[in-house]
Amino acid sequence: MSEPAFIADPSVAPYNVAYLVDDRSHLYHEYDVDRDRDHGPAAPDRNGDTGAVDSDRDAPVDYPARREAILAFYGHRCGRCGTKVARQSDEETSLGYVHSVAAEGEPEWALSNLVAVCEPCYDVLSTRCCEDLGTFGDTYREAPQFPTWTCDPRVAVERLPLTGREAWTRHVLSDRIEDAPSCRANHTVVRRACLARSTPAAEAVALGKALVRDERGALSTSNRRLRERWHTLTAHEREEWESRAVDPDTSLVTGGFEPALERHPV
User: Fold this and answer.
1) Going by C-beta distance under 8 Å and a sequence separation of 6 or more, which residues neighbour residue 213?
2) Contact at 8 Å (CB) between 116 and 70?
3) Which of 80, 78, 39 is closest to 59 using CA atoms?
4) What is the pLDDT of residues 120-179, one digit of tens each?
5) Cα dist. 45→65, 105, 108, 109, 244 in Å?
6) What span, in angstroms and rounded, lies between the C-alpha atoms of 152 and 81?
7) Rounded Cα–Cα distance for residues 151 and 23 (Å)
8) CB–CB of 189/154 below 8 Å?
9) Distance between CA 81 and CA 150 in Å, rounded?
């Protein structure tokens, strides 16, 4: 029987119904994945009980099979931003990773708890404190600020604005969203990731939709795209917004993140 991938807010219509019913049980047999290793890099003993964790590994020995299964399940698309992902990167695709959204006590490597993501989004989701920044260089800067509407709600996190322009853009977009939904399907990931805002999943998706509408929608002669309007701000105004952006070199602290936007609400 299928199990829900997340608990949705019943008062809010799902923005991607594909994730309401999420049964991945067939992938275990299809990709030869061992269920006994869902809890991590521990080998089952002869009686079927979980043995001691192998300290030399941070993933199960069948990680390649799990990764291949999840990439295929997500259609070789990032579960956050929708970009193409593959086992090897090239000019058209990003290197695909898997990110666990398991809550405390849940099997971290169970296929139901894994999401396919691109390298930049993986950096955003897996960076839990400033000491981890730079694991992949500065690829987190390449991750879209907002998730796409086709994303897995469990990783529908908004990347913290890294520039004044991004902080200002978010401020303008938030004013355009009426009755923003409040589904908190991404709370586990938000709690762990220092580069992600605590914005509810559905609201983060709504911000992304608003940005796409601004970039692609029709304009009257009196309106301008946000990217053009930013340049019309005075130098002083732009400096003020720069102070509200999150500078990873100064705003993040060991053991988590110092929410600069709490001091300078956006």
Assistant:
1) none
2) yes
3) 39
4) 999 999 888 777 777 667 889 999 999 998 899 999 999 999 999 999 999 999 988 877
5) 21, 21, 20, 18, 54
6) 9
7) 17
8) yes
9) 8
